[in-house]
Every structure is written in C-alpha cells, then in structure tokens.
Amino acid sequence: MKKEPQKESVAERTRAFIDSHPSIKDCISKDLINFSSLARLIMKEEGIKNEEAVMIACRRYALKLGKHDHEKEVLKVIGNSRVEVKTKICIVTAKNDWTVLHRLETVFKKLIDEKAIMQVIQGTQAITIIADEKLKGEVVAAVGRENVLKVRQDLVEISVKSPEVITETSGVFSYLVSSLAEGGLNIVETVSCYTDTIFIMSEKDMIPAYSILSKCIESAEEKESSDEE
Questions:
Q1: Lowest CB count within 10 Å: 3, 89, 147, 154, which one?
Q2: Is residue 2 included in any domain, yes or no?
C-alpha cells in the first residue's frame, strides 16, 4: 500500500515562511517584530488555523536566530561588488523544442571561437536567447523563423559582479531587484550565473538603473566602513 506523503508541521511551515522573507528574518534578528502580527500574517498566507502553534514556532525560531544580522551579510556582499554595462543587446524568444537547441549548437561553436557571449535560458514554454544585437540575424536564421516567437532589441545588459560568497548568501538578488523596482524600472529578463547577477533592461533605463545599483554598492561600502570604526 502506497504511503501518503507526510504534511509539513506548523513549525516547519513557519520557518519556511520566515526564511523566504529576508526582511522579516532581519527584523526578527533585530527584535523589531510583533509576533502576534507576524503569526496572523503567516496564518493568512499559509492557511494555518492554530495561532498559538504559529506563535510558539515564531518565538522558538527567533531564539535560534538570536541576534544574527542577515542584512549585514547582504550589504557586505553588495559592498564588494561592481557594476558593468553592455549595450546593444537583443533577446530572441523561440519555441521550446529540442530542434531549436540542436540548431543553436553551430552558433555556440562559432561564438566560443570568437570569444563572444550568448546566454540561453530554457523555460517550460519557450527558449530565451540573449545575445549581442549584431548576432540577431544569425540567431534567428539558426533557430528558424518558423520557431521564433518574439524578438526584442534596443536593450542593455547590466551585470553586478560579486565575490564568491554570494553563492552562500541569500537575499542579495532580492535586495537588488527591490532597489530597481522602487526606482520604477522594469527588468525585461534576469539571469544569475555563479557570481554574476545579470539584468536585461530597456536602453532608456540604462542610466537610472546604473545609478541605482551604483548607489546600492556605495551605501553598502559606507555601512561596512562605519561598522569597522
């Protein structure tokens, strides 16, 4: 007889919710959280009805977190990062089909020889190809026009290059995305590759995006310097 999978306990669901919200986690570590309000939020979001169990789980997890300052870790990574910009980027969106990937193989070989860069992201519905705008015609021809769903150009690639510790630090991506969103900027595509966090944006948003990300790094550097004094 097949066993039914065990349901997560209230404590496990509470910890998972807190872990998925870095801002809440930071406030808990700084003792800035009203646990009654947090418990009600978790109950609403997770569909839990036992408020007392959620409250207990929150308080126990708070003791485990202690005074751990997660925000400080995030800012340390950002403070040691740098921003790079590449212009004239295009995105070709194609059907998610194995023949498309096979056809791209020849383009990849050529790009490796020329030391050019192209990123391919395979989703459930489509394949996204991010490349230099001058490669647009070649990529479309390789994929086959019948397989192309959409082509976008006049884009820029803004890369935040961070130290290796970013791979073990949660919340950095969220911090950067939130900063861009607060500036009213739209991200067309985003890619995370090892220590690089890459944002594809409209050319018109290049200067404000670069300014926001540079200020994030500058502020993080200042915060780290003040903490060391």
A1: 3
A2: no
5 found inside a domain: no
- The predicted structure's pLDDT at residue 157: 96
Please tell me the total count of domains within the chain. Answer: 2
Angle between helices 51-65 and 35-46 (to 10 degrees): 120
Q: Does residue 57 sit in the same domain as residue 167? A: no
User: Are 51 and 127 contained in the same domain?
Assistant: no
Q: Are residues 148 and 201 in the same domain?
A: yes
Residue 125 CB-half CA count within 13 A: 3
Phi-psi region of 9 (alpha: psi -120 to 50; beta: other; left: phi over 0): beta
Q: What is the DSSP letter of 125?
A: S
Predicted pLDDT at 4: 44
**Residue-wise pLDDT tens digits, 134-173:** 889 989 999 999 999 999 999 999 999 999 999 988 889 9
Domain that holds residue 62: 10-68
Give the integer Cα–Cα distance in Å for 159 and 137. 24
- CA 145 from chain center: how many Å? 31
Residue after which a domain boundary falls, among 22, 50, 68: 68
Question: What's the pLDDT tens digit per position in 184-223?
Answer: 999 999 998 899 999 999 999 999 999 999 999 999 888 7
How far is residue 185 CA from its own chain's centroid?
A: 15
Between the CA of residue 118 and those of 39, 42, 47, what are the distances in Å? 46, 42, 43
Residue with tokens 């086959």: 144
Mean pLDDT computed over every residue of the chain: 87
